[in-house]
Amino acid sequence: MPKIHPLIICGGNGTRLWPVSRTESPKQFQRIGDATSPTFFQSAIERHQGADFEIPVIVASERHARTVETQLAQIGSDAQIIHEPMGRNTGPAVLAAAMRLYQHDPEALMLVIPADHVIEGDLNSTIVAMKQAAQDGHIITFGIKPRYPETGFGYITDGGAVDGYPGLRKVERFVEKPPARKARFLVESDIAYWASGISMFSAATIIEEYKRFDMRSYVAVENAVLNAAPAPRGVVLSAEHFRQAAAEPTEQVVFEKTRRIALAPLDVMWNDVGSWSAMYGIQAPNAEGNVLQGDIVTVDTHNSLVRSEGRLVTLVGMSDVIVVDTPDALLVTKVGHCQNVKKVAEHLKAAQRVEVESHQKAEREWGHLRQVIDEDAFTLSTLTIKPGAVVSMEADELREAIVVTGSLSACEGPHMRALGPGGRMVLDGAKGGRLVNDADETAEVVLMSVQPAVPADNVVPVARYA
Predict the structure, then answer these.
(1) Gap between the Cα atoms of 264 and 141, Å rounded
(2) Which structural domain, as residue segments, surrounds residue 315?
(3) Is 359 a domain residue?
């Protein structure tokens, strides 16, 4: 019997976990707990390893390619990677992965796994027990016994046993995010399960069902795969064709229509971590009921989550609050109002604020740029340049770079000179320049400008200086 291919879906922006989660570095790539914990993405990969599993297949946005590679390297994991040129929900992502796997193994089995959930318990025993059913053509969705009436989850109701497959159940119906009264009824009925977002089937089965229910998307994804460009560890799907696929989830396109659907109950602790309240719930609190991450001091504070990514944060006389401090944004809310954090992200997006897209300390291959002061007529930033890296600065304004630590070579046109601590390079607006770190240590630079802030992407890495 073939091994199972874990398919890690890395879509979504995770706006309910702003300001940590942003478009360029969404929830799945953030750490679950403190600085020593894995990210959600890394945890999902490590959860499904061993004799029953192949190396994972990862579907992620092309813009997150470097993040995916970095986090794979951190845990020493190999993978096949499919890069999406744009997001089209889970359906086209799953179908593209199925087509890629089918090309190499027509009997391939797929386990679809969200990249941003927290699961505790023996998940894999149930999954492995369902291999034969998946190989025989069943589409298996895994359900979690509900602990409370949650209105933000989908539900699956049990339609009775499937003959010949111990533990496998028929699906009576799907219920999508019911109102509170109906959610309570479902929980009390004892035949309903939370839809976990985890599913398993053969690549051939999901391809056949897509052809049956959405031929237009099938053709679009097939062409996107056939015309994909090669990339490290995988491919980049053709944007011209992929954008023609319907942006719908697999559940809506196939699961809710097919006769092949089945349910396998899971006996695990599961959390989709869809809010800061949920993030608080998955951590072990201290004696005061607080979850503290970073440099935190609390006095007479209880049942709160406080997270800092840098500076000291102190709380006095607070209860049931969420405080999340990042270098460029601070979130303060009460435990019961965290679902509305998404509205903050929507407001920032409408106002075209950079804080919804990326962090001020924008990580790049060459180092990072962090804005410290951003006024109408003056900007002060810190620039970290890694060994061997080069950055070019456009001469569209009067700017001055001062080396704080390390040594650099300043290149202005054909001229080059060495800069040590205290050394300066001035761009007068008539010509550009480059800073080259040809030393073995990281260099720190203070960058001042008399014009409005230059976005991080305007500091452009160029070829290694030779």
Answers:
(1) 6
(2) 276-342
(3) no
Confidence (pTM): 0.76
Q: Of 240, 256, 271, which residue sits at a domain end?
A: 271
pLDDT at residue 428, rounded to an integer: 59
Position 136 scores a pLDDT of 97
Looking at the structure, tell me whether residues 178 and 255 fall in a common domain.
yes
Which range (223-237, 240-254, 353-367, 422-436) has the least confidence?
A: 353-367
Q: Across residues 246-254, what is the average pLDDT?
A: 95
Q: Give dist(CA 323, CA 312) in Å, integer.
A: 12
Residue 223 shares a structural domain with residue 281? no
83 and 232: one domain? yes
Q: Give the C-alpha separation, 186 to 69, whole Å.
A: 42
Backbone angles phi, psi at 332, to 5 degrees: -130, 120
- The answer as to whether 411 is a domain residue is yes
Q: What is the mean pLDDT of residues 436-446?
A: 89
Per the model's pLDDT, the better-predicted residue between 377 and 429 turns out to be: 377
